[in-house]
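Technical note accompanying the year-one report. For the benefit of new consortium partners, we illustrate the data format agreed upon in the data management plan: each record pairs a sequence with a structure-token string. No post-processing was applied to the example shown here.
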Amino acid sequence: MSRFLMFLLATVACGHGSPERAPGYGNSLSRNLVGAWDASLSLSKPYPLGVGPKTQRICGTIGFVENHQVSDPSTDDDRGVYDLDLSRLGLGWLDVPSYPIAVARLNAQVDMGESSRDSVAIVLNPGSAERIVLLGRYDVGGINGRWTAQSARGTAMGVFLLSPHTIASERSRKC
């Protein structure tokens, strides 16, 4: 598992860098997710049951690679990994040693069941007992929206911002 994580991170790091610079992808938004993203998640409503969060905001990185395994473009999603300390927001409470998987899909149903060309849905740790879903809109500056976590402890919510990772953003990241 750790070899796969290192391979995936190396692919993202040695690839085209930030999503806006990826050549040859045309205007397809799903191709623009490929690369490294700086992530910021803020908590607005913690789980009603359990220990409270240690902080109200965390920062980290999410990296996506193109999924070449799908044959139907309408079901296309990008696969990736993330480096976010979810436990600081009171998430990741089961402390299961799972692989930090992220799956992203564009043209997702974001508002009231309607999908749009600039909508994005990202699921962290799909299939786990704690479902964390980020729903947002893609624009020039990145992706912003709301996240929801559902588990046996109830529902936690907040907002997020993903911006393309650059060397300058790495130096100036404040969280």
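Partners are asked to follow this layout when depositing records. The radius of gyration is 16 Å.
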